Amino acid sequence: MLNEFLTFINKQNLIQPSQKVLLAVSGGMDSVVMCDLFSKAKLNFAIAHCNFGLRGEESNEDEMFVKKLSIKYKVPFYVTTFQTTDFAENEKISTQMAARILRYEWFEKIRTQHQFDYIATAHHQNDVLETVLLNLTKGTGIAGLHGIRVKNGHIIRPVLFAEKESFFDYVVENQIIWREDSSNESNKYQRNLIRNEVVPLLKQINPNLENTIQQTVERITAVEDIFEQEMEMLKKQITWSDSQAIYVNYKAIQTLSQPVIKLAELLKPYNFSYQQSQDIFEAFDKEAGKMFLTPTHTLVKDRTELVITPKNLQAFTSKTIETNNVVVEFGDRMLNIGEFTEIEEDFIVPTAKKVACLDADKIRFPLQLRKWKEGDWFCPLGMNKKKLISDFLIDQKVPLNLKKDVYLLTSNGSIVWVIGFRIDDRFKVTEKTAKICLMEVK
Protein backbone atom coordinates (compact mmCIF):
# COMPACT_ATOMS: atom_id res chain seq x y z
CA MET A 1 0.00 0.00 0.00
CA LEU A 2 2.96 2.33 0.64
CA ASN A 3 4.05 2.11 -3.01
CA GLU A 4 0.50 2.81 -4.20
CA PHE A 5 0.35 5.76 -1.78
CA LEU A 6 3.58 7.28 -3.12
CA THR A 7 2.54 6.67 -6.73
CA PHE A 8 -0.82 8.35 -6.13
CA ILE A 9 0.77 11.40 -4.48
CA ASN A 10 3.22 11.80 -7.36
CA LYS A 11 0.60 11.23 -10.07
CA GLN A 12 -1.80 13.75 -8.50
CA ASN A 13 1.05 16.13 -7.61
CA LEU A 14 -0.37 16.43 -4.08
CA ILE A 15 2.65 17.05 -1.84
CA GLN A 16 6.20 18.26 -2.35
CA PRO A 17 8.92 16.98 0.04
CA SER A 18 9.40 20.45 1.56
CA GLN A 19 5.72 21.01 2.32
CA LYS A 20 4.01 20.66 5.72
CA VAL A 21 0.75 18.73 6.01
CA LEU A 22 -1.78 18.76 8.86
CA LEU A 23 -3.43 15.33 9.17
CA ALA A 24 -7.03 15.18 10.41
CA VAL A 25 -6.95 12.14 12.69
CA SER A 26 -9.99 10.75 14.46
CA GLY A 27 -8.29 7.62 15.78
CA GLY A 28 -10.26 5.37 13.42
CA MET A 29 -8.65 2.86 11.09
CA ASP A 30 -8.54 5.09 8.01
CA SER A 31 -6.81 8.08 9.59
CA VAL A 32 -4.43 5.89 11.62
CA VAL A 33 -3.30 4.13 8.42
CA MET A 34 -2.84 7.53 6.75
CA CYS A 35 -0.56 8.57 9.65
CA ASP A 36 1.53 5.44 9.30
CA LEU A 37 1.88 5.95 5.54
CA PHE A 38 3.01 9.56 6.04
CA SER A 39 5.56 8.40 8.61
CA LYS A 40 6.94 5.60 6.41
CA ALA A 41 7.10 8.00 3.46
CA LYS A 42 9.12 10.41 5.66
CA LEU A 43 6.78 13.31 4.89
CA ASN A 44 6.59 16.43 7.08
CA PHE A 45 3.31 16.24 9.01
CA ALA A 46 1.48 17.03 12.25
CA ILE A 47 -1.71 15.63 13.75
CA ALA A 48 -4.96 17.47 14.51
CA HIS A 49 -7.83 15.91 16.46
CA CYS A 50 -11.36 17.15 17.16
CA ASN A 51 -13.18 16.00 20.29
CA PHE A 52 -16.85 16.53 19.44
CA GLY A 53 -18.03 15.35 22.85
CA LEU A 54 -20.73 13.16 21.29
CA ARG A 55 -19.83 9.80 22.84
CA GLY A 56 -18.96 10.71 26.42
CA GLU A 57 -15.89 8.94 27.76
CA GLU A 58 -15.31 7.26 24.37
CA SER A 59 -14.60 10.67 22.85
CA ASN A 60 -12.05 11.47 25.57
CA GLU A 61 -10.39 8.07 25.07
CA ASP A 62 -10.15 8.78 21.33
CA GLU A 63 -8.38 12.05 22.13
CA MET A 64 -5.85 10.33 24.40
CA PHE A 65 -5.25 7.62 21.79
CA VAL A 66 -4.50 10.19 19.06
CA LYS A 67 -2.23 12.13 21.41
CA LYS A 68 -0.20 8.95 22.03
CA LEU A 69 -0.09 8.47 18.26
CA SER A 70 1.58 11.87 17.86
CA ILE A 71 4.13 10.89 20.51
CA LYS A 72 4.80 7.63 18.66
CA TYR A 73 5.50 9.46 15.41
CA LYS A 74 7.24 12.38 17.16
CA VAL A 75 5.08 15.03 15.46
CA PRO A 76 3.21 18.12 16.74
CA PHE A 77 -0.30 17.53 18.10
CA TYR A 78 -3.24 19.94 18.01
CA VAL A 79 -6.55 19.25 19.72
CA THR A 80 -9.79 21.07 20.43
CA THR A 81 -13.14 20.28 22.03
CA PHE A 82 -16.48 21.38 20.57
CA GLN A 83 -19.95 21.77 22.06
CA THR A 84 -21.29 20.13 18.92
CA THR A 85 -24.85 19.41 20.08
CA ASP A 86 -25.36 22.97 21.33
CA PHE A 87 -24.05 24.40 18.07
CA ALA A 88 -26.33 22.11 16.02
CA GLU A 89 -29.37 23.11 18.07
CA ASN A 90 -28.57 26.83 17.89
CA GLU A 91 -28.08 26.71 14.12
CA LYS A 92 -30.96 24.23 13.57
CA ILE A 93 -28.79 21.83 11.59
CA SER A 94 -27.90 18.14 11.92
CA THR A 95 -25.18 17.03 14.30
CA GLN A 96 -23.14 15.74 11.35
CA MET A 97 -23.36 19.06 9.53
CA ALA A 98 -22.43 20.91 12.73
CA ALA A 99 -19.39 18.68 13.24
CA ARG A 100 -18.30 19.23 9.63
CA ILE A 101 -18.54 23.02 9.86
CA LEU A 102 -16.75 23.17 13.21
CA ARG A 103 -13.88 20.88 12.28
CA TYR A 104 -13.05 22.43 8.91
CA GLU A 105 -13.10 25.97 10.33
CA TRP A 106 -10.74 24.85 13.11
CA PHE A 107 -8.46 22.92 10.73
CA GLU A 108 -8.12 26.02 8.53
CA LYS A 109 -7.34 28.16 11.59
CA ILE A 110 -4.54 25.79 12.63
CA ARG A 111 -3.27 25.58 9.05
CA THR A 112 -2.88 29.34 8.70
CA GLN A 113 -1.56 29.95 12.23
CA HIS A 114 1.16 27.31 11.94
CA GLN A 115 1.84 27.70 8.21
CA PHE A 116 0.85 24.25 6.98
CA ASP A 117 0.54 23.87 3.22
CA TYR A 118 -2.33 21.39 3.31
CA ILE A 119 -4.92 19.66 5.47
CA ALA A 120 -5.16 15.92 4.72
CA THR A 121 -8.22 13.78 5.38
CA ALA A 122 -8.37 9.98 5.11
CA HIS A 123 -11.27 9.66 2.66
CA HIS A 124 -11.13 6.60 0.40
CA GLN A 125 -13.08 5.10 -2.53
CA ASN A 126 -15.89 3.74 -0.36
CA ASP A 127 -16.44 7.26 0.97
CA VAL A 128 -16.77 8.51 -2.62
CA LEU A 129 -19.42 5.88 -3.34
CA GLU A 130 -21.40 6.71 -0.19
CA THR A 131 -21.19 10.44 -0.86
CA VAL A 132 -22.49 10.12 -4.43
CA LEU A 133 -25.39 7.90 -3.32
CA LEU A 134 -26.25 10.22 -0.43
CA ASN A 135 -26.18 13.28 -2.70
CA LEU A 136 -28.35 11.55 -5.32
CA THR A 137 -30.85 10.62 -2.62
CA LYS A 138 -31.12 14.20 -1.34
CA GLY A 139 -30.94 15.87 -4.77
CA THR A 140 -27.78 17.41 -6.14
CA GLY A 141 -26.13 19.36 -8.92
CA ILE A 142 -23.06 18.43 -10.90
CA ALA A 143 -20.75 19.04 -7.91
CA GLY A 144 -22.57 16.43 -5.85
CA LEU A 145 -21.90 13.78 -8.48
CA HIS A 146 -18.12 14.06 -8.37
CA GLY A 147 -18.19 12.78 -4.80
CA ILE A 148 -14.98 13.77 -3.04
CA ARG A 149 -12.19 15.58 -4.86
CA VAL A 150 -8.57 14.50 -4.48
CA LYS A 151 -7.68 18.16 -3.93
CA ASN A 152 -9.95 21.04 -3.02
CA GLY A 153 -8.10 24.24 -2.19
CA HIS A 154 -5.90 23.49 0.83
CA ILE A 155 -7.61 20.14 1.51
CA ILE A 156 -6.10 16.95 0.06
CA ARG A 157 -7.19 13.28 0.18
CA PRO A 158 -3.96 11.30 -0.24
CA VAL A 159 -5.53 7.84 0.30
CA LEU A 160 -8.46 8.30 -2.09
CA PHE A 161 -6.93 5.62 -4.35
CA ALA A 162 -7.70 2.84 -1.85
CA GLU A 163 -10.78 0.78 -0.99
CA LYS A 164 -11.74 0.00 2.61
CA GLU A 165 -10.46 -3.57 2.29
CA SER A 166 -6.94 -2.24 1.68
CA PHE A 167 -6.97 -0.56 5.08
CA PHE A 168 -7.94 -3.82 6.80
CA ASP A 169 -5.10 -5.65 5.02
CA TYR A 170 -2.63 -2.92 5.99
CA VAL A 171 -3.44 -2.88 9.73
CA VAL A 172 -3.25 -6.69 9.89
CA GLU A 173 0.06 -6.80 8.03
CA ASN A 174 1.62 -4.00 10.11
CA GLN A 175 -0.07 -4.90 13.43
CA ILE A 176 -1.54 -1.43 13.86
CA ILE A 177 -4.03 -0.60 16.61
CA TRP A 178 -6.90 1.83 16.03
CA ARG A 179 -10.06 3.04 17.76
CA GLU A 180 -13.43 1.74 16.61
CA ASP A 181 -16.22 4.34 16.62
CA SER A 182 -19.30 2.58 18.03
CA SER A 183 -21.58 5.04 16.21
CA ASN A 184 -20.47 3.58 12.85
CA GLU A 185 -22.84 0.66 13.41
CA SER A 186 -25.88 2.85 14.07
CA ASN A 187 -28.22 3.29 11.11
CA LYS A 188 -29.71 6.43 12.63
CA TYR A 189 -26.98 8.29 10.67
CA GLN A 190 -27.82 8.52 6.96
CA ARG A 191 -24.32 7.67 5.73
CA ASN A 192 -24.22 4.56 7.93
CA LEU A 193 -27.60 3.44 6.55
CA ILE A 194 -26.26 3.69 3.00
CA ARG A 195 -23.01 1.92 3.99
CA ASN A 196 -24.64 -0.88 5.96
CA GLU A 197 -27.85 -1.50 3.98
CA VAL A 198 -27.87 0.14 0.52
CA VAL A 199 -24.35 -0.58 -0.76
CA PRO A 200 -24.50 -4.35 -0.08
CA LEU A 201 -27.72 -4.54 -2.14
CA LEU A 202 -26.22 -2.57 -5.04
CA LYS A 203 -23.13 -4.78 -5.00
CA GLN A 204 -25.37 -7.74 -5.72
CA ILE A 205 -26.00 -6.07 -9.10
CA ASN A 206 -22.41 -4.87 -9.59
CA PRO A 207 -19.74 -6.42 -7.34
CA ASN A 208 -17.23 -3.93 -8.77
CA LEU A 209 -19.39 -0.96 -7.70
CA GLU A 210 -16.62 1.17 -6.15
CA ASN A 211 -14.47 1.10 -9.30
CA THR A 212 -17.48 1.73 -11.55
CA ILE A 213 -18.51 4.78 -9.54
CA GLN A 214 -14.89 6.03 -9.53
CA GLN A 215 -14.78 5.88 -13.35
CA THR A 216 -18.12 7.72 -13.56
CA VAL A 217 -16.84 10.34 -11.14
CA GLU A 218 -13.77 10.96 -13.32
CA ARG A 219 -15.97 11.67 -16.36
CA ILE A 220 -18.29 13.95 -14.40
CA THR A 221 -15.29 15.79 -12.96
CA ALA A 222 -14.03 16.53 -16.47
CA VAL A 223 -17.39 18.10 -17.39
CA GLU A 224 -17.41 20.03 -14.11
CA ASP A 225 -13.96 21.46 -14.85
CA ILE A 226 -15.31 23.04 -18.05
CA PHE A 227 -18.24 24.53 -16.12
CA GLU A 228 -15.94 25.81 -13.37
CA GLN A 229 -13.75 27.66 -15.87
CA GLU A 230 -16.82 29.55 -17.07
CA MET A 231 -17.89 30.24 -13.47
CA GLU A 232 -14.44 31.52 -12.56
CA MET A 233 -14.59 34.08 -15.35
CA LEU A 234 -18.11 35.10 -14.29
CA LYS A 235 -17.02 35.43 -10.66
CA LYS A 236 -14.27 37.87 -11.62
CA GLN A 237 -16.75 39.95 -13.61
CA ILE A 238 -19.62 40.29 -11.12
CA THR A 239 -18.24 39.67 -7.60
CA TRP A 240 -15.80 41.55 -5.39
CA SER A 241 -14.88 41.59 -1.71
CA ASP A 242 -13.33 43.59 1.10
CA SER A 243 -12.34 42.74 4.67
CA GLN A 244 -15.97 42.58 5.78
CA ALA A 245 -18.07 41.07 3.00
CA ILE A 246 -18.44 39.52 -0.44
CA TYR A 247 -20.55 41.44 -2.95
CA VAL A 248 -22.44 40.05 -5.97
CA ASN A 249 -23.95 42.21 -8.73
CA TYR A 250 -27.34 40.53 -8.90
CA LYS A 251 -28.57 42.64 -11.84
CA ALA A 252 -25.85 41.07 -13.99
CA ILE A 253 -27.08 37.59 -13.00
CA GLN A 254 -30.56 38.39 -14.34
CA THR A 255 -29.12 38.73 -17.86
CA LEU A 256 -27.46 35.29 -17.89
CA SER A 257 -28.67 32.01 -19.34
CA GLN A 258 -29.58 29.53 -16.57
CA PRO A 259 -29.25 32.28 -13.92
CA VAL A 260 -30.37 30.18 -10.95
CA ILE A 261 -27.83 27.43 -11.68
CA LYS A 262 -25.05 30.01 -11.89
CA LEU A 263 -26.24 31.88 -8.80
CA ALA A 264 -26.29 28.59 -6.87
CA GLU A 265 -22.71 27.91 -7.95
CA LEU A 266 -21.59 31.39 -6.83
CA LEU A 267 -23.28 30.93 -3.44
CA LYS A 268 -22.20 27.32 -2.83
CA PRO A 269 -18.97 28.22 -0.94
CA TYR A 270 -21.14 29.98 1.65
CA ASN A 271 -23.35 26.89 2.19
CA PHE A 272 -26.50 28.21 0.50
CA SER A 273 -28.68 25.41 -0.89
CA TYR A 274 -30.13 25.27 -4.39
CA GLN A 275 -33.60 25.98 -2.97
CA GLN A 276 -32.26 29.05 -1.17
CA SER A 277 -30.64 30.19 -4.42
CA GLN A 278 -34.03 29.94 -6.12
CA ASP A 279 -35.60 32.00 -3.32
CA ILE A 280 -32.81 34.58 -3.53
CA PHE A 281 -33.26 34.86 -7.30
CA GLU A 282 -36.99 35.46 -6.85
CA ALA A 283 -36.17 38.26 -4.38
CA PHE A 284 -34.14 40.19 -6.97
CA ASP A 285 -37.16 42.26 -8.02
CA LYS A 286 -38.35 42.88 -4.47
CA GLU A 287 -37.37 45.63 -2.05
CA ALA A 288 -33.96 45.71 -0.40
CA GLY A 289 -33.33 44.18 3.01
CA LYS A 290 -34.43 40.57 2.50
CA MET A 291 -32.12 38.30 4.52
CA PHE A 292 -31.10 34.67 3.95
CA LEU A 293 -29.09 32.53 6.39
CA THR A 294 -26.86 29.48 6.41
CA PRO A 295 -25.02 28.05 9.44
CA THR A 296 -21.89 29.97 8.38
CA HIS A 297 -23.06 33.06 6.45
CA THR A 298 -25.69 35.77 6.14
CA LEU A 299 -26.83 37.17 2.79
CA VAL A 300 -28.76 40.41 2.39
CA LYS A 301 -30.31 41.61 -0.87
CA ASP A 302 -29.22 45.25 -0.81
CA ARG A 303 -29.99 48.07 -3.26
CA THR A 304 -27.68 47.00 -6.08
CA GLU A 305 -25.93 43.85 -4.88
CA LEU A 306 -26.06 40.78 -2.68
CA VAL A 307 -23.98 41.29 0.47
CA ILE A 308 -22.59 38.11 2.04
CA THR A 309 -20.95 38.13 5.47
CA PRO A 310 -19.54 35.30 7.59
CA LYS A 311 -21.19 34.59 10.89
CA ASN A 312 -19.06 35.11 13.96
CA LEU A 313 -19.48 31.74 15.68
CA GLN A 314 -17.90 33.11 18.85
CA ALA A 315 -19.68 36.21 20.07
CA PHE A 316 -17.46 39.26 20.61
CA THR A 317 -17.27 40.52 24.15
CA SER A 318 -16.25 44.09 24.92
CA LYS A 319 -12.58 44.85 25.57
CA THR A 320 -11.09 47.30 28.03
CA ILE A 321 -8.07 49.28 26.85
CA GLU A 322 -5.96 50.55 29.73
CA THR A 323 -3.39 52.69 27.92
CA ASN A 324 -2.25 54.12 24.59
CA ASN A 325 0.49 52.73 22.32
CA VAL A 326 -1.20 49.31 22.04
CA VAL A 327 -2.62 47.06 19.33
CA VAL A 328 -6.01 45.49 20.09
CA GLU A 329 -7.50 42.57 18.18
CA PHE A 330 -11.27 42.52 17.56
CA GLY A 331 -13.04 40.20 15.14
CA ASP A 332 -10.66 39.82 12.21
CA ARG A 333 -9.33 43.37 12.54
CA MET A 334 -6.67 45.20 14.53
CA LEU A 335 -6.97 48.57 16.27
CA ASN A 336 -3.69 50.44 16.67
CA ILE A 337 -3.82 53.18 19.33
CA GLY A 338 -0.71 55.31 18.94
CA GLU A 339 1.30 57.31 21.45
CA PHE A 340 0.19 60.78 22.48
CA THR A 341 2.37 63.24 20.53
CA GLU A 342 2.80 66.98 20.55
CA ILE A 343 0.98 68.59 17.62
CA GLU A 344 3.24 70.28 15.11
CA GLU A 345 2.51 73.55 13.37
CA ASP A 346 2.22 72.10 9.86
CA PHE A 347 0.24 69.02 10.96
CA ILE A 348 -2.61 68.05 8.61
CA VAL A 349 -5.47 66.04 10.10
CA PRO A 350 -5.87 62.78 8.10
CA THR A 351 -9.30 62.23 6.58
CA ALA A 352 -9.20 58.46 5.85
CA LYS A 353 -12.14 56.61 7.41
CA LYS A 354 -9.86 53.97 8.89
CA VAL A 355 -7.88 56.60 10.80
CA ALA A 356 -9.06 58.64 13.79
CA CYS A 357 -7.15 61.76 14.83
CA LEU A 358 -8.23 62.82 18.33
CA ASP A 359 -7.45 65.46 20.93
CA ALA A 360 -5.44 63.41 23.44
CA ASP A 361 -6.38 65.62 26.40
CA LYS A 362 -10.06 64.78 25.91
CA ILE A 363 -9.52 61.01 26.08
CA ARG A 364 -9.88 59.27 29.46
CA PHE A 365 -8.56 55.76 29.98
CA PRO A 366 -9.62 53.04 30.28
CA LEU A 367 -11.32 53.03 26.88
CA GLN A 368 -13.99 50.50 25.96
CA LEU A 369 -14.18 48.69 22.62
CA ARG A 370 -17.59 47.18 21.93
CA LYS A 371 -20.28 46.61 19.33
CA TRP A 372 -22.99 49.25 18.97
CA LYS A 373 -26.47 48.68 20.35
CA GLU A 374 -29.87 50.28 19.96
CA GLY A 375 -30.07 53.64 21.74
CA ASP A 376 -26.38 54.50 21.25
CA TRP A 377 -25.79 58.06 20.06
CA PHE A 378 -22.89 60.37 19.25
CA CYS A 379 -22.21 63.76 17.70
CA PRO A 380 -20.81 63.02 14.22
CA LEU A 381 -17.82 65.09 13.18
CA GLY A 382 -19.08 68.35 11.69
CA MET A 383 -22.33 68.32 13.67
CA ASN A 384 -23.12 69.89 17.02
CA LYS A 385 -26.13 67.72 17.82
CA LYS A 386 -26.79 64.11 18.78
CA LYS A 387 -27.52 61.39 16.25
CA LEU A 388 -28.53 57.80 16.94
CA ILE A 389 -26.01 55.27 15.65
CA SER A 390 -28.89 53.37 14.01
CA ASP A 391 -29.86 56.48 12.01
CA PHE A 392 -26.24 57.24 11.18
CA LEU A 393 -25.76 53.74 9.72
CA ILE A 394 -28.90 54.16 7.61
CA ASP A 395 -27.50 57.44 6.27
CA GLN A 396 -24.24 55.66 5.49
CA LYS A 397 -26.23 52.98 3.61
CA VAL A 398 -24.61 50.19 5.57
CA PRO A 399 -26.15 46.83 4.51
CA LEU A 400 -28.20 45.08 7.18
CA ASN A 401 -25.75 42.22 7.75
CA LEU A 402 -22.76 44.58 8.04
CA LYS A 403 -24.43 46.64 10.76
CA LYS A 404 -23.85 43.88 13.32
CA ASP A 405 -20.09 44.25 12.84
CA VAL A 406 -19.92 47.99 13.54
CA TYR A 407 -17.72 48.67 16.58
CA LEU A 408 -17.48 51.67 18.89
CA LEU A 409 -14.64 53.08 20.94
CA THR A 410 -15.85 54.86 24.07
CA SER A 411 -14.22 57.08 26.70
CA ASN A 412 -15.88 57.57 30.07
CA GLY A 413 -19.16 56.35 28.55
CA SER A 414 -19.06 58.70 25.54
CA ILE A 415 -18.56 57.42 22.00
CA VAL A 416 -15.19 58.58 20.66
CA TRP A 417 -15.22 56.83 17.29
CA VAL A 418 -17.65 54.77 15.22
CA ILE A 419 -14.73 52.71 14.01
CA GLY A 420 -14.12 52.92 10.30
CA PHE A 421 -16.80 55.59 9.82
CA ARG A 422 -16.54 58.83 11.81
CA ILE A 423 -15.23 60.28 15.07
CA ASP A 424 -17.33 62.21 17.56
CA ASP A 425 -17.14 65.98 17.09
CA ARG A 426 -16.40 66.49 20.80
CA PHE A 427 -13.03 64.69 20.48
CA LYS A 428 -11.80 66.37 17.28
CA VAL A 429 -8.52 68.25 16.94
CA THR A 430 -8.96 72.05 17.24
CA GLU A 431 -6.67 75.09 17.34
CA LYS A 432 -6.47 74.59 21.12
CA THR A 433 -5.22 70.99 20.83
CA ALA A 434 -1.78 70.44 22.39
CA LYS A 435 -1.41 66.67 21.95
CA ILE A 436 -2.96 64.26 19.47
CA CYS A 437 -3.64 60.54 19.43
CA LEU A 438 -3.72 58.75 16.09
CA MET A 439 -5.70 55.52 15.87
CA GLU A 440 -5.89 53.21 12.88
CA VAL A 441 -7.95 50.12 12.14
CA LYS A 442 -6.66 47.39 9.82
Descriptive notes:
The protein has 442 residues and is an alpha+beta fold. 40% of the residues lie in helices and 21% in strands. The protein has 15 helices and 22 strands. The protein has a six-stranded mixed sheet, sandwiched between helices. It has a five-stranded antiparallel sheet with strand order 7-8-11-10-9. Helix 4 (84-91) packs across helix 5 (95-113) and helix 6 packs across helix 9. It is globular. The relative contact order is 0.08. The model has no long low-confidence stretch (mean pLDDT 89).
Instruction: Note poorly predicted spans.
Output: none
Spatial extent as radius of gyration: 27 Å
Side-by-side strand order of the widest sheet? 3-2-1-4-6-5
Largest sheet: 6 strands, mixed
- Give the mean pLDDT: 89
Strand segment tally: 22
> What is the strand content?
15-25%
Distance between the termini: 49 Å
Helix content: 25-40%
Class computed from helices, strands and strand pairing:
alpha+beta
Separate helix tally: 15
* Large-scale geometry: globular
List keywords for this structure.
alpha+beta; single chain; six-stranded mixed sheet; 40% helix; globular; 442 residues
Short description:
The protein has 442 residues and is of the alpha+beta class. The protein is built from 15 helices and 22 strands.
